[in-house]
Structure formats: structure tokens, C-alpha cells
Specification:
With about 120 residues, this protein is mainly alpha-helical. The chain has six helices and three strands. Helix 1 crosses helix 2 (about 20-30) and helix 2 crosses helix 3. The chain is elongated, with a radius of gyration of 18 Å. The relative contact order is 0.09.
């Protein structure tokens, strides 16, 4: 999903359930889209199984967190052959982690090891 589609999805996640009419109004105000553009993008995201439009009421089929988890997994799989350490190495090569982030990552690993 591209940046604009992500912004569009955020509107739905933040306001669901939302009527397709209200979604079109918000999309016109934010993106300057015509109603037909809103419905085209919505239809595409519904076909991907992210949202549903049931009698003019739009709701999500997967949560925002679930969606971004899947997207992250795909990115690591496609770009780093599925290696999380390789991703973290590349990520931290240019962005230094704060002490709080390091602590949080250690906690995540510790909790994973306990499972």
C-alpha cells in the first residue's frame, strides 16, 4: 500500500464504522478526490481483504496493527531474506537507538525467550 492509500486507510481505522458518504467527504477535503476516486480506492482495499463496505458502512477486516505487522514481515522477507538481525543491523547503521529503545528491544527478546 502506498503513502496515500495508507493515509486513506488511517481515516477508516480512526473513524470506523464510517459511512461511505462520510468517507468520500473526508477524502475530498483531505486529498481533493472526487467521490468516484474514493470508491475506487475503497474497492481496491476491500478486494485486498483489508476493509469491507457493507450497505454503505465501511469497517476493517484486520486491525491497523495486524496490517502493519504483515507489511513489516513482507518487507523483511523480501529485502533481508527474512533475517530480522540483518534488518536491525541495516536499520541501526544510520539511526542510533536511544537507551529507551535498546531497553525495550531487550524486554521484547526476554519475553520471547520466556514463551
Amino acid at each position: 500500500m502506498g503513502a496515500v492509500d495508507s493515509q486513506f486507510a488511517e481515516i477508516i481505522w480512526e473513524n470506523e464504522p464510517i459511512s461511505s458518504t462520510e468517507l468520500a467527504k473526508r477524502s475530498e477535503a483531505i486529498f481533493r478526490w472526487k467521490k468516484s476516486t474514493t470508491y475506487t480506492v475503497l474497492k481496491r482495499l476491500c478486494e485486498k481483504g483489508i476493509f469491507q463496505n457493507n450497505k454503505g458502512t465501511v469497517t476493517s477486516l484486520i486491525s491497523k496493527q495486524e496490517f502493519y505487522s504483515v507489511q513489516s514481515e513482507k518487507f523483511v522477507a523480501e529485502t533481508f531474506d527474512g533475517s530480522l538481525p540483518a534488518f536491525l543491523n541495516a536499520f541501526t547503521a544510520r539511526k542510533h537507538l536511544t537507551p529507551e529503545e535498546v531497553t525495550y528491544l531487550r524486554q521484547m527478546v526476554a519475553e520471547y525467550e520466556e514463551e
